[in-house]
Write a structure and sequence with these properties.
Shape: globular
CATH topology of the largest domain: OB fold (Dihydrolipoamide Acetyltransferase, E2P)
Strand content: 15-25%
Largest sheet: 7 strands, antiparallel
CATH architecture of the largest domain: Beta Barrel
Strand order of the largest sheet: 9-16-10-13-14-15-17
Radius of gyration: 23 Å
Low-confidence stretches: 280-287
Order of helices and strands: EHEEEEEEEEEEEEEEEHE
Number of strands: 17
Number of domains: 2
Distance between the termini: 51 Å
Mean pLDDT: 91
Helix content: under 10%
Amino acid sequence: MALKKFKPTTPTLRHTTLVDKSHLSKTRPPKALTSVIKNSGGRNHKGKITIRHRGGAVKKLYRIIDFKRDKTDIKGVVETLEYDPNRTAFIALIKYVDGERRYILAPDGLNIGDEVLSSEEAPIKGGNAMPLKNIPQGSFVHAVEMYPGRGALIARSAGTNVQVMGNDKGYVQLKMPSGEYRLVRETCIATLGVVSNQDQKNVKLGKAGRRRNKGIRPGVRGVAMSWGHPHGGGQGKGGRHGTGGPKKDLWGNKVGTRTRKDKKPSSKFIIKRRPAKNKFKKYKTII
């Protein structure tokens, strides 16, 4: 995997860094494995905006990914590696011996022609899927189920992985990408390896147009707003003489505040919470 940089013929290209996709297939995805999705513009089923600064994305087909890996004990061969506009990871088109094709998340190091298998006795090899109880301690996995049979929910983004720490009375202890330690049932399916496209974290889009194509609309800085925002108000350029104090969101919560409910039923499966990244300091109010 490599990053693609450009000659600095313009100020934009000087700082643009993209992922090299030259090794990926340019063929159109099979029609049976795609579906049409409507751009919601960040709105829920009631029409209320729940995610701000969304809208105007380029139309794209959704690729149906096999997150359950429930085609067991049947070998498949990697036919193509493809770019998926709906996610940061690359995807692999698998052709099984019975003729069926399915998409899976492509792990790092998977190549065209490699065999993959979903089985309780599958070899310990990247791309193979099996229950957590059969995966050796210390292995790195991705696309992990949180509940048996519901499909993968954990570690699906580019470059992410979960480490298997050990078994514990019908559960397996996992070290999450955030540093959290969590218990998951040992019958949950996981795929061996690390998710592909690890260089995604180093991408610099370079210009606003690329963000608009992804459906990300402009956002206004809080210090440039009026008194309706915790950072706003005051006089002068950009509200620099505003309220001051620690960083807060639109609703006044300190950035980094833990919002998880104390009595959430699944809290009993968390052995160790993720480490706090923001340590608040005392700020002087700017007058």
